[in-house]
């Protein structure tokens, strides 16, 4: 039996933070006012007016008032969810009290913002008892203001070893009569403070990669029916590094990532979606090299592979080694080194074909991928069969389920999605698997 999710959204691609009050500006709310106006592919799935680390302590009281003003005025038109981040700390009762008071002020119906607030983000949590303290604060705020119990979701930032250990307990604690932890929505990694808490060091002073933390957060989210989000990628100019980080995360089941700029939001919104066109890859020196489609051929145009043919024998130089091969041996060698990244249309078509076969009473079918590879003008036909059964179908469905989740909850992105894929593919993608 699958884990029950308590919220409509199954996926969050983007977690965008913006400071709630900027010192020295005529309008201290300029950053969140700008964020509230984002639309389409530049608007995040979750917007986080950040009244903690992104806002100076001396400006946080003003930041709360800015949140109330901007969200009350513009929250109804914002296309994503809104989850302000407040102060909290597992070892500091004064900060916990301040966070409680900030949430209570923002959630006061008389201030006009709470109808557009989906929840709050709680940083610096500790063990599971601290998560329960935060939940109790939510309960009291809802009771004080006459809000429906559980109407405000709670997301936490995993920034300590204590919080990481708590990930293994959250599923068992949710649903107990003594708490309302069913309000949990997102688990967000905070690698900077986590590094500090772990007293970790690197020779350059840069953050460790922390793949274990990301895996544990994703695992905890999967077990409890929550959403996992990776922490901020500080080098905002390194778009390729940002993409690589997201690709590694998705292999762990973590779709969401922190975004610091609208440009990062745009990149992160697009990255998890299936590509518009399929791509053949050739493994060279342990790296996958993208081939170029030209006139029905997949062309390698680099300098690290060479291929020539003479009297039915082939000389292939790759990875620094030269091989004399027959045509069949060459085909097998290249087949072992090639892989295919399917397009949105490819995935939809394969799912449709399997659904039709299943309707006809077949439990498994073979899907064929074929291409003509061209290296130094020498062409080689390769093809591979993949057996599709119900498990294969379910695995292939994940990116389509993501697309359907986006399409349902982000109508402001419909035009851009149709522009990327074409309206026919979008229509089929919204229907397949249902």
From TrEMBL:
Domain of life: Archaea
Keyword Magnesium listed: yes
Keyword terms, alphabetized: Magnesium, Metal-binding
Cofactor(s) recorded in Swiss-Prot or TrEMBL: Mg(2+)
InterPro entries: Aldolase/citrate-lyase_domain, MS, MSH_C, Pyrv/PenolPyrv_kinase-like_dom, Pyrv_kinase-like_dom_sf
Domain HpcH/HpaI aldolase/citrate lyase: 115-256
Domain annotation Malate synthase H C-terminal: ranges: 280-394
Gene3D superfamilies registered for this protein in UniProt: 1.20.58.1560, Phosphoenolpyruvate-binding domains (3.20.20.60)
MF (Gene Ontology): catalytic activity; magnesium ion binding
Biological process annotations from GO: oxaloacetate metabolic process
PANTHER family: CITRATE LYASE SUBUNIT BETA (PTHR32308:SF10), LYASE BETA SUBUNIT, PUTATIVE (AFU_ORTHOLOGUE AFUA_4G13030)-RELATED (PTHR32308)
Record-given protein name: Malate synthase
Organism this protein belongs to: Halobaculum saliterrae
